[in-house]
Structure formats: structure tokens, C-alpha cells
Write a structure and sequence with these properties.
This protein is α/β, with parallel strands linked by helices and 279 residues long. 39% of the residues lie in helices and 18% in strands. It has a single domain, classed as Class I glutamine amidotransferase (GATase) domain (Rossmann fold, 3-Layer(aba) Sandwich). It has helices at 3-24, 26-34, 50-57, 90-101, 112-120, 183-189, 228-234, 239-249, 254-278; strands at residues 40-43, 62-64, 79-82, 105-109, 125-127, 135-138, 140-141, 159-162, 169-171, 177-181, 193-200, 203-208. The protein is globular. The N and C termini lie far apart (39 Å).
Length: 279
């Protein structure tokens, strides 16, 4: 998917997600509107672009680079996303670990598994030493979680894009919950976990194999090739809502919109879960 198409997919999918919150989860919609930029932190990386997802969803946030995290007011940060590769100085790894145990919610992607999670939280998860090539795989839900709200649809197999050299994740501690797994990845690369989470002190850690900002999708059947309007009507939008969203989507396919929607919902749901617990 080209950069223009991907940006458009995220913009439209995020609008759809906010409409769903307003109509079906008004309390969550108000929590989102009340969020302050200082409460959500993006730690910049080279290979993932979580800030682009947050920006599309309308979540205010601040950004910082590795080596500059001492300039962040961590007393105000509720959720921190660390982009792949997650290479941080040892002092910042220790800072983040302490912040999580005190109640912070941490989200990480791909190579941060090895560079951040292994040293910060030993014996929880680890990179199994392999590398997954560029591919799109089927995934399945293993545990119920509000974080998966954008993934599971009746009759549609959830798909997940593995960017080239994604790190397979081996779970070491039974306390780590596997939310999504892929039998395709497990059979070929020795570890089937795709999305995992665990409670750490008063906080939480969420890790995704591959990236949150997904830069392509895959068409596997006629349903994936469906028009934007068909996708939104199938998702529960009717009349002027479906027409408005479809007009913004243009020639985007259901597959492209679904890919963007799952990432946008996951990024937002982590923040909402933290706010619900705090409330």
C-alpha cells in the first residue's frame, strides 16, 4: 500500500472508530476527549511509527527520543509506546521498568522484545533467535480482552502483517497472557505468540510481534476486495454515516480499511483500559 493510501486508510478508519465509541461506548468516548497530551508518550524509533496511528485516532500525545527520556514528566505519563527497535540506554530501561511497576502501561513492538523487554523484565518473554520474513498471516484470539475489539469479526479471518525480520516471541512465564497467536508462525518459526500482555507490579506490558503502524494489507478473498461502503455497512454503519465514511475512503478496499482499523483500535484501547482502571 502506498504512503498516501495508508495515511488515508488510517484517517478514515480512525473516524469510524471514534463514531463507534460515540454511539456504542459514550463513556469511553468522553475519556478519549478528556485525554491530555502529557498522559501518552511515544518513544521514537526507526522502523515503527506509532505516532502516526495515535495522530489519526485523535489521541493527543508527546514524543521523545531514546537518550532524552529524562526530560519527560513521568509522573504524568499513563501510557508509553516504544517503537521498534526499542534501543535505549540502560538507565532509561531501568526508568521505564520502575515506571511500569508503579502503575504505567507500556506498549512495545517487534525488536523492542530483545532490546527493552528482555533486560527490563527478565524471564517474562524473549526473542527465540529467529526472524520472520515479510508475509501476512492468519491470527486467532486466545484470550478475551477489550484490546482485541477491532480484530475479531464474524466470518472474517483476522490477518497480521509481519514486516521483514520480525522477532518471534517465546513466552517464559505462565503469567504472560497470549492474546493473539498464529499457527502459521508457530509451525515455521517456533513461537506462535503475536500479541502478549502481563501485569507488572501495578502496571501492564503489552507487546506486538511486528509493527503497529502496518504499511500493507493482503487480499485473500472477495470479502477483502469489497468496497469501502460495503465494509462500513457490514460493520454496522448505515445511511449517511456509511456514505460519509466511504466518500473519504475513495477506492480503498475492505482489506486496507480493516488493517488500519485494527491498529487504530488497539492503540486507543490500551489508553482507555488504563483510564478505566484509574477511574
Amino acid at each position: 500500500m502506498s504512503g498516501e493510501r495508508q495515511d488515508r486508510a488510517y484517517d478514515v478508519a480512525a473516524k469510524a472508530y471514534r463514531e463507534i465509541l460515540r454511539e456504542r461506548k459514550p463513556e469511553d468516548s468522553r475519556l478519549l476527549e478528556q485525554s491530555e497530551a502529557s498522559q501518552v508518550l511515544e518513544v521514537k524509533g526507526t522502523y515503527d511509527h506509532i505516532g502516526s496511528v495515535l495522530r489519526a485516532t485523535g489521541v493527543p500525545f508527546i514524543s521523545a527520543s531514546p537518550g532524552g527520556l529524562d526530560q519527560v514528566d513521568w509522573n504524568r505519563v499513563e501510557v508509553a509506546w516504544v517503537n521498534c527497535p526499542g534501543c535505549l540506554p540502560q538507565g532509561e530501561i531501568e526508568l521505564i521498568a520502575e515506571w511500569v511497576r508503579a502503575g504505567g502501561y507500556l506498549g512495545t513492538t517487534d525488536w523492542a522484545l530483545k532490546h527493552l523487554l528482555e533486560p527490563a523484565f527478565p524471564r517474562k518473554v524473549r526473542h527465540n533467535g529467529g526472524a520472520i520474513p515479510d508475509c501476512v498471516v492468519k491470527v486467532e484470539a486466545v484470550a478475551e480482552s477489550p484490546l482485541l475489539a477491532g480484530f475479531i469479526e464474524d466470518g472474517r479471518d483476522p490477518l497480521w502483517w509481519m514486516e521483514s525480520s520480525s522477532f518471534p516471541c517465546t513466552v517464559l512465564d505462565p503469567a504472560v497472557r497470549v492474546l493473539l497467536k498464529s499457527s502459521e508462525v508457530g509451525s515455521q518459526f517456533g513461537a506462535d505468540a503475536i500479541v502478549v500482555e502481563w501485569d507488572e507490579g501495578r502496571g501492564k506490558v503489552l507487546h506486538l510481534v511486528s509493527h503497529l503502524y502496518l504499511q500493507r494489507s493482503e487480499v485473500r478473498n472477495s470479502r477483502d476486495r469489497a468496497s469501502a461502503k460495503s465494509y462500513f455497512e457490514e460493520s454496522g454503519f448505515r445511511g449517511s454515516q456509511a456514505s460519509m465514511l466511504a466518500a473519504g475512503a475513495g477506492d480503498l478496499t475492505a482489506s486496507e480499511l480493516k488493517s488500519a482499523f485494527t491498529s487504530a483500535s488497539l492503540a486507543t484501547e490500551l489508553m482507555l483500559e488504563k483510564k478505566r482502571r484509574g477511574r
